[in-house]
Specification:
The complex is a heterodimer.
Chain A lengths: L3 E6 L11 H14 L1 E5 L12 H4 L1 H18 L5 E3 L2 H16 L1 H12 L13 E3 H9 L1 H6 L9 E4 L21 H8 L3 E2 L14 H4 L1 H17 L4 E4 L2 H8 L2 H8 L7 E3 H8 L17 H8 L1
Parallel strand pairs in A: 1-2, 1-3, 3-4, 5-6, 5-7, 7-8
Chain B lengths: L2 H9 L4 H8 L14 H5 L10 H9 L3 H5 L12 H5 L6 H14 L8 H16 L4 H9 L4 H10 L1 H9 L17 H20 L4
Helix pairs in contact in B: 8-9
The chains are: A alpha/beta, B mainly alpha.
């Protein structure tokens, strides 16, 4: 298989020592197994996620994404821009679409970019894609299944897709209300999916976990409860903020609601890395606050 | 009311819908709402909105400027995009709510201590300083937002969480002394200043 190359936007949380550094570790391991080459966009900046709007406003926010698009085009010309973080993907794709649809916005963004010595040349509609799209569309489930060395046998996994990987863009061919690609991936890797998991697209509170913890933790409680009631051994998600919100506050939720959750939450790339024969550290399992014991045991085999 | 706010009221002759259409991100969509209420029923924080989105749209059309802009409703948006994909008329509701919140913030009519308003500013200041998020400092500024005393209390409450994040190498204490950032900080800052300048000029231009 020829090496596939993409212009890569890792995003802030995937950096070393940041909250989703284990996502990056496992993405590297997964891409190594699948012969995918990620060319990091030099000097990329934060996309301002879905919470910067209050102070940031429209043009400054779009300018942030325009800078990444311009740098990507300059340094990795012709390559699709790929993000692993839901918010990074959403902000960048939305900005690219709006810039390409609106000449005035493009002109204003270029005025701002010029102050940084950059330029976004219309018309160059760059494809801004989520890693999950790359896996499903460019490789396909059959190819993903062929690489499995250690099937996730006997591990029951609730697929929690969350919001921003699913809306407003989502993955082509999937429904907003009941996307099934993550279940299919779990099955492809030899695990037991839970197709009827009720909370797969429920909001975790997003950035409001920081400003409105009580309201957000109540949402997360529902997500965990449904996984538990369906007999899940763990939850899998594609989104760094979903992962953090559903994993790290379980103690606080238990204290607040008198529950006793201890549910591991992993990334799809961690499942794939283990299934593809990588060890626990390569799969970023040392980054779990709630240990994914069944995956760790499998990774030793 | 702030000076800027009174100036806009005068400019649009008390026509709040026109003001929103001209100044709020995606505001031109507001008149398209047909009041079905799917947005309000789809919102994960629905019960916490004093005025859910559908009601906000009608209030804008009814000229309830003060009530809308001082409301904490828009700040309940979690950016889940449920309303956007379900709206039968295709209104970009999430963006309109962000736009209204931002507009209320710029005019300084938004509630002063609204926690998401404060966090949003903290986040923007954090990420634009070095061009990338400094998660440690963001967490600390959140804990200490109300001063030193409450900050220590808040930090202690979250001590176990912080320790677990550090133990799993998902938080780095060294971020306190700098941390991640872009190389071209001055370029990034110049770009953002220019973008802000363009937006401010638009707010000051005469009404059509």
């Amino acid at each position: 298989m020829a090496k596939k190359e993409y212009s890569f936007y890792p995003g802030c949380s995937s950096q070393k020592g940041a909250s989703a550094s284990n996502l990056q570790t496992s993405v590297d391991a997964m891409c190594d197994a699948l012969d995918i080459q990620l060319n990091e966009i030099p000097d990329w900046n934060c996309c301002s996620a879905s919470i910067g709007y209050g102070e940031g406003g429209e043009l400054p926010r779009i300018a942030l994404s325009a800078r990444n698009l311009a740098l990507s085009e300059e340094h990795n010309p012709g390559q699709d821009l790929v993000a692993t973080c839901a918010a990074c993907w959403l902000a960048t794709r939305e900005a690219a679409e709006r810039l390409n649809d609106d000449n005035q916005l493009m002109a204003e963004a270029n005025q701002a970019l010029a102050a940084a010595g950059l330029k976004l040349e219309p018309p160059k509609p760059q494809r801004v894609r989520h890693m999950v799209e790359v896996l499903i569309e460019d490789l396909g489930f059959d190819a993903l299944g062929e690489k499995v060395q250690r099937p996730l046998e006997g591990i029951k996994i609730a697929s929690y897709i969350g919001c921003q990987t699913n809306r407003p863009f989502g993955i082509a061919g999937e429904s907003f209300e009941n996307p099934v690609y993550l279940d299919k991936l779990v099955d492809t890797l030899g695990g037991d999916s839970i197709p009827d998991y009720e909370k797969k697209v429920q909001c975790c509170g997003g950035a409001l976990m920081f400003s409105e913890p009580e309201k957000s933790q109540e949402l997360v409680k529902g997500i965990l409860e449904a996984a538990h009631d369906n007999g899940a051994d763990m939850i899998v998600t594609p989104c760094p903020l979903c992962q953090m919100n559903t994993e790290v506050y379980q103690d606080q939720i238990n204290e607040r609601h008198g529950t006793s959750f201890n549910m591991p939450v992993v990334y799809y790339s961690q499942l794939m890395s283990v299934a593809y024969g990588k060890n626990a550290n390569q799969a970023g399992l040392d980054g779990q606050i709630i240990k994914a014991t069944k995956l760790e045991e499998l990774a030793k085999k | 009311m702030s000076d800027m706010s009174s100036a806009v009221v005068e400019k649009y002759h008390n026509d709040f819908l026109k003001e929103v259409e001209a100044n709020v991100e995606e505001g031109e969509w507001v008149r398209m709402c047909m009041q079905c209420g799917v947005c309000s029923g789809s919102c994960p924080l629905g019960p916490h909105w004093a005025h859910p989105p559908q009601e906000i749209f009608m209030m804008i059309r009814a000229g309830k400027r003060e009530e809308v802009l001082t409301s904490d409703s828009m700040w309940m948006c979690t950016s889940c995009y449920n309303c956007i994909v379900r709206c039968p008329r295709g209104l970009p509701i999430t963006h309109i709510m962000h736009g209204l919140a931002h507009y209320a913030h710029v005019l300084d009519l938004a509630p002063k201590n609204q926690p998401t308003r404060r966090f949003s500013k903290m986040f923007w200041d954090n990420i634009t300083k070095n061009g990338r998020a400094n998660e440690l400092k963001l967490g600390l500024s959140l804990y200490f937002k109300d001063g030193f005393g409450p900050g220590v209390k808040e930090a202690l409450k979250n001590k176990a969480l912080g320790q677990a994040m550090m133990k799993t190498k998902r938080m780095n204490p060294m971020e306190f002394f700098g941390g991640h950032g872009v190389k071209d900080k001055s370029g990034l800052h110049a770009m953002l200043e220019k973008a802000r300048e363009i937006e401010e000029a638009k707010l000051k231009r005469p009404a059509n």
